[in-house]
DNA sequence: AGCACGCCGACT
DNA sequence: GTCGGCGTGCTC
């Protein structure tokens, strides 16, 4: 038998050694090593014994076998948590296509910052005079490094370790004698920066209604037993958070910890405070505003058992709790749970895998579950819990009406405000209540187009229109290209060329001309620039400093405005005709959320949905607040067209500076994939009639944005009812001989 | 990070 | 010549 080797990452906190090293497995350890295991290895010239983690196995090393050393021993009583996270990284690499290093960096992002947690200081233990005498001695000896060090030490009693080694360039070898002579000592300070220090826990009990109690007892039973993934479908205001908290209480009582994932945009002060009030100092929070050091402090607190609950966005999924018992994913339908960078993992699937490893449970919650999750609940893969009434009994559901914009046009109304919406706005203002105007549109910045030929001004490096910024320049959102607004149309030479302004700006201008006395706030990227801009606008509106708030998606996510009684959705179908097969789902979710903003307290709410396609099921179902109806339409469409969740879909993106190379490589992959189109396990009884494992290849075709930064982009899709054949295909592609001018990326849905 | 190697100035 | 500190580079 040939020799066995392991790929190892060495547990040294430094970028210079932040890579894979290979070691030989000695005979006595053959078969005893596994992924993620902590081992002892000789490292460096002096063969100092260090810790390392196994991240892979191989029989043929990529390094001169002569120089490869042997694994020494297995670290028996290592904390299993790192091993578990490393195994999770391996799973992510398999499923989402990335290198092991990329996956590890996603899962163990705090590795580099572990040291700053234990900040080290060099502290002078003798008087300033004594230090000065010593300094004179070393000056005479002309030992420059030691002189530099003593000078600094005389000046300041305490010196941070990094300052000494990096800024002063005094190596440990140079100051070690001083430590031994007792001139100074090495102190470590564990200063945990708790961002919520000082909040006192106020034990709060809440009365659960019948639906909430049913959900809690069902989930608790699942947790005590098989720990099946649960989906909590509860309408806005049904009190999902109380259910989560009851379940968390149960989990903590059993000595386990919980992670609560929340989309970054909904991670508001209010939400977080509710958890603090309930669980006090045992709660921690991470978000993107936290510095890397603070974040790793919080992860360290989790690892050492000082907290029980971690709240945060997608990345909080990798909190190193030693005894994880529960992962809650709130607003599980949010796109923010899908990573945009390699590995392009999905938080739900990854959470389920992590919980499988840790014998923990996943709870998904949403007012508008993703079609994918609801499908799995329907198939019995998840347990489903429904909450159909609002927790506060006095608050009532808003009344919703649809206005057909085509009728408005026929009646001679060319504005984007229907007569009905105008009328209701007027009434709302008269009652001194507030209104939200929601523009359901992705690209908020306007583009410039020619009135004569209709051509939009495009980026010379990408296949997209340039957008106008507030500074008057034209910019490309993909590559950053910037230019002045041209005087003549680049394609036909006409001088009738103009911008349309941003959608929200236009709406704001129109409202103020209709109601000159109304106070209007606009919320888009322009008005929320700078830190806290976001919250500042929302707070101002909540305080009643304005009557009308105009904005995009941002205004409908997780904010309560008790005085809002009117919500106007200006063009419901704007999101219906873009964004691939999920457009219908996105539209339904946005409309439902927007409608849910109306009349959340005792005041009755009114919602107006304006649409050019009022009979589309996404619009109709949102208007009647009927999730089921939406779902059955949507799943029918997905089944017919072989889209997820009925089928698994793998998309491949080929990018190259040479258009032909990208297209050719995509074609080559399609050709190779042809062999997967037949049944893989031919002859099995199951294959009779239905080929669950047949792979369907679509493309290659130009990507939606066919060129970015002068790179051409082609896509190829592979669909299959089973996941396994797709993973097999992915493996085959990874082993293909590749044109070095072409890059590729996987995406699994 | 931490260790050894090799350069370079100081001193028997 | 040789001793020893200091900067540089490498670590499977």
From TrEMBL:
Binding site for Zn(2+) 2: 459, 462, 476, 479
Reactions it catalyzes: Couples ATP hydrolysis with the unwinding of duplex DNA by translocating in the 3'-5' direction; ATP + H2O = ADP + phosphate + H(+)
GO terms of molecular function: 3'-5' DNA helicase activity; ATP binding; DNA binding; hydrolase activity; zinc ion binding
Residue span, Helicase C-terminal domain: 484-653
Keywords: ATP-binding, DNA replication, DNA-binding, Helicase, Hydrolase, Isomerase, Metal-binding, Nucleotide-binding, Primosome, Zinc
EC number: 5.6.2.4
Binding-site list for Zn(2+) 1: 450, 453, 489, 492
One Gene Ontology term, aspect cellular component: primosome complex
Domain Helicase ATP-binding: 221-387
One Pfam match: PriA_C
Domain of life: Bacteria
Xref: CDD domains: DEXHc_priA, SF2_C_priA
Record-annotated membrane-spanning stretches: none
Record note on cofactor: Binds 2 zinc ions per subunit.
InterPro entries for the chain: DEAD/DEAH_box_helicase_dom, Helicase_ATP-bd, Helicase_C-like, P-loop_NTPase, PriA, PriA_3primeBD, PriA_3primeBD_sf, PriA_C
GO BP terms: DNA recombination; DNA replication initiation; DNA replication, synthesis of primer; double-strand break repair
Cofactor: Zn(2+)
Role, per record: Initiates the restart of stalled replication forks, which reloads the replicative helicase on sites other than the origin of replication. Recognizes and binds to abandoned replication forks and remodels them to uncover a helicase loading site. Promotes assembly of the primosome at these replication forks.
Subunit relationships: Component of the replication restart primosome.
Family (UniProt): Belongs to the helicase family. PriA subfamily.
Name by which UniProt lists this protein: Replication restart protein PriA
Originating organism: Lientehia hominis
Gene: priA
